[in-house]
Design goal:
Helix content: 25-40%
Order of helices and strands: EHEEHHEEEEHHHEEEEE
Structural class: alpha+beta
Radius of gyration: 17 Å
Distance between the termini: 40 Å
Number of helices: 6
Shape: globular
Number of strands: 12
Bound molecules: biotin
Strand content: 25-35%
C-alpha cells in the first residue's frame, strides 16, 4: 500500500498548483496536499471552484507505472473512491457518479475531481495529480448564486454530520486500496464498479463544448480509457474523452 504523507495548509491558491510544484521537485507518490481553503481553486474548463473553509480541498500526487494513455483512468478510480467513502460514512446509496468526474447526491453536485498529468522526456508517465473537492460543511451562503440549485453540501443533505478529516481519511483509504488494485490487476474491476455506481449510462445526454450542445444521444458505454460512447437517435456513435455532458 502506498504510504500517505499529508501536507496541511491553512490557505493555498490551489492544492493542485502546490501539488504540481511539489511533484516537479520530486515529491513522493502518496503525498497529499490539503488546504482549509483555496483562494484560486479551479475546476475543469478553467472554471473557478468555490473553496471556502468548511469544505475538503486536496490533491494527491501519484507516480503510476501506467502507460500515459491509461493514466486518465485514475479520475474514474477517484470517483469510485469518493462515492464508496461517502456512501459508507453517510449510510446512503444516494451518491452516484456522473461521467467523467462529478459525484452527485440526488442529482446535486457534492464533489468535483480535476486530474492533471505530466510526461517524462522519454514519453513515460512522470506524475499524475488528482485534485478532489468535496462540499462537506461550508456554509450554504458561500455557494455561488449560480450553483445553489445544482450543488449540495454533505452535512446539509446527509442525515449525519462528518468532519472534513473524517471524509478525507475515508476517501484516502478507499482511493489507495483501489489504486493498488489498479496498479496490480488493471482497470477491469474498477470499471465494473464505476458502472454500478454511475448515473450516466443508459440516459439521454447532451454533450456540451463551451456550454454549446454539440451532440445528443444515449450514453451507451465507457471505454477502457475512460472515454464515453454516445449514440444518437439516428444511430451515429461518437466517443468523448473530455467535454461536458448534462443528463436530461
Ligand atoms: C470540477 O468539477 O470541475 C473539478 C473541481 C476540482 C476542485 C478541486 S479542489 C482541490 C483541487 N484544487 C483545485 O484547484 N481544484 C481541485
Amino acid at each position: 500500500m502506498v504510504k500517505v504523507r499529508l501536507q496541511r495548509y491553512e490557505v493555498l491558491t490551489s492544492t493542485n498548483e502546490t501539488a504540481v510544484l511539489a511533484a516537479g521537485k520530486g515529491a513522493a507518490e502518496g503525498t497529499v496536499i490539503v488546504a482549509d481553503r483555496q483562494e484560486g481553486g479551479h475546476g475543469r474548463m478553467q472554471r473557478k471552484w468555490s473553496s471556502p473553509k468548511g469544505g475538503l480541498w486536496f490533491s494527491i500526487i501519484l507516480r503510476p507505472l501506467t502507460e500515459p494513455e491509461y493514466v486518465a483512468q485514475v479520475t474514474l478510480l477517484a470517483g469510485v473512491a469518493v462515492t464508496r467513502a461517502v456512501r459508507a460514512l453517510y449510510g446512503t446509496t444516494k451518491p452516484s457518479i456522473k461521467w467523467p468526474n462529478d459525484i452527485l447526491w440526488n442529482g446535486a453536485k457534492i464533489c468535483g475531481i480535476l486530474s492533471e498529468m505530466r510526461l517524462k522526456e522519454d514519453g513515460s508517465t512522470d506524475y499524475a495529480i488528482v485534485g478532489i473537492g468535496v462540499n462537506v460543511d461550508q456554509s450554504p451562503e458561500t455557494l455561488p448564486e449560480e450553483l445553489r440549485e445544482t450543488a449540495a453540501i454533505l452535512n446539509q443533505v446527509g442525515e449525519m454530520k462528518h468532519t472534513c478529516d473524517e471524509v478525507l481519511e475515508a476517501v484516502l483509504e478507499e482511493f489507495f486500496t483501489l489504486y493498488d488494485s489498479w496498479q496490480q490487476k488493471g482497470f477491469d474491476s474498477i470499471l465494473s464498479e464505476w458502472k454500478r455506481l454511475n448515473c450516466t449510462l443508459g440516459n439521454l445526454v447532451d454533450v456540451r463544448d463551451d456550454d454549446q450542445v454539440i451532440f445528443q444521444g444515449i450514453a451507451e458505454n465507457i471505454d477502457a480509457d475512460g472515454a464515453l460512447r454516445v449514440v444518437s437517435r439516428e444511430g451515429v456513435a461518437k466517443r468523448y474523452d473530455f467535454g461536458e455532458i448534462s443528463i436530461r
